[in-house]
Amino acid sequence: MSALYTAVATATGDGRNGEARTSDGLLEVDLAVPTEMGGAGGATNPEQLFAVGYAACFHSALKMVARQAKAQISDSAVTSEVSIHPKEEGGFQLSVALHVEMSGVDQAMADKLVQEAHQVCPYSNATRGNIEVEVDAVVG
Q1: Pairing verdict, β 92-103 and 132-139
Q2: Are 96 and 132 in contact (CB under 8 A)?
Q3: Which of 2, 42, 124, 138 has the smallest number of CB atoms closer than 10 Å to its CB?
Q4: 122 to each of 28, 36, 67, 107, 127, how far by Cα in Å?
Q5: Cα dihedral: 125, 128, 129, 130 (round 10)
């Protein structure tokens, strides 16, 4: 399969307490375990980075399906909540809640667009069947 784009990032340090940077140097972040998980906090964490990526990707997918449907959405935003949970058999599992806001369409069209975006978003396709992902739409 031929890739349209490949992102490359490297994490160093002590696992969740360390640094991460992209190969092009456009993103460099310090990493820290959040206080809610017993860490010092004060820096970003992998769940926040995943949440930002998923929100941006899903928003792009929403805009694409809206254009294809000739739906004039406006004031759109996607909020991604990424949670980490312990698994009964050990290890950890993520879950995601995507909250989509938009105006310019009625609730039925907003719901339809969000479901269509969920089918084409690469993050949704990567997580489907692996983790719980909830999506909802609110028309403002």
Answers
A1: parallel
A2: yes
A3: 2
A4: 23, 29, 18, 24, 9
A5: 100
**Cα(138)–Cα(122) distance, rounded to whole angstroms?**
22
The tens place of each residue's pLDDT in the chain, 140 residues long, gives 899 999 999 999 998 999 999 999 999 999 999 999 999 999 999 999 999 999 999 999 999 999 999 999 999 999 999 999 999 999 999 999 999 999 999 999 999 999 999 999 999 999 999 999 999 999 99
Q: What is the C-alpha to C-alpha distance for residues 113 and 64, in angstroms, rounded to an integer?
A: 10
Total residue count of the chain as it appears in this document: 140
Task: Tell me the DSSP string of 63-95.
Answer: HHHHHHTT---EEEEEEEEEEEEE-TTSSEEEE
